Amino acid sequence: MARLGEAGTIQFSKVRKGSVLYDDLRRQIVKGGLKPGDPMLEITVAREYGCSQGTVREALMRLQEDGLVVRGGYKGTTVSVTGPAEAREMQLMRLHLETQGVRRAASLIDDQFLARLSGIVEEMERVAEAGDEYALTELDCEFHLTIFGRAGLPALDAILSRCLLHLHRITLAEPGRTRPLLISAQRHWDVIDALRTRDATTAVAAITHHINTVLETGIAGEEG
């Protein structure tokens, strides 16, 4: 197994150990520090993080729910592999879910909701200027899931969340890729402006254009 980043610096004192470990392993997988196919032995992870195997097991179960690891019984746990065909299907699924979601949500938008979205984008700009691409992807997920949450389709939230997570993982893992982070963050203002009209057609057109930026540049291209 690849060495687990800065395992020794993780602090477990103020929150549940499993949550802290989950967050750190998730970050390493999404950023590509842990590669597809890498083994993740419970005893090894526990030793490097200075925690119990029970804590590791809890974190790995959550990563399995995200589709980031595959738990194979006696074969152990490995980092999952997402192939090009799966990536393409997730991108198309994302487009379908978000366009239908924004269509339902458009008439339910109020000023308080728009202020919440604006706050997320302002934070995206801040982390983009700091060069923190992982934080930017996390905020991007929050932005899109917040809009989708207004659609009233809670059973589909987890599906969209997984699509976004894996598509970001593919983007971050592309070798030699560079991305203008601030431009990526600022692009979200167009979606907010469209939602401000409360018009479903306008909002759908904006979110479609936003997501199609990814489709036009390829799955491993720039994030939406």
Describe what this molecule looks like in 3D.
The chain has 224 residues and is mainly alpha-helical. The chain folds into two domains: 7-79, Winged helix-like DNA-binding domain superfamily/Winged helix DNA-binding domain (Arc Repressor Mutant, subunit A); 84-217, GntR ligand-binding domain-like (Four Helix Bundle (Hemerythrin (Met), subunit A)), CATH 1.20.120. The protein is 65% helix and 3% strand. The chain has ten helices and two strands; from the N terminus they run H-H-H-E-E-H-H-H-H-H-H-H. A hairpin with a 5-residue loop joins strand 1 and strand 2. The radius of gyration is 18 Å and the shape is elongated. The model is unreliable at 218-224 (pLDDT under 50).
Layout of SSEs?
Layout: H1 17-31, H2 42-49, H3 53-66, E1 69-71, E2 77-79, H4 84-105, H5 111-129, H6 133-149, H7 157-173, H8 181-186, H9 188-196, H10 200-217
Antiparallel strand pairs: 1-2
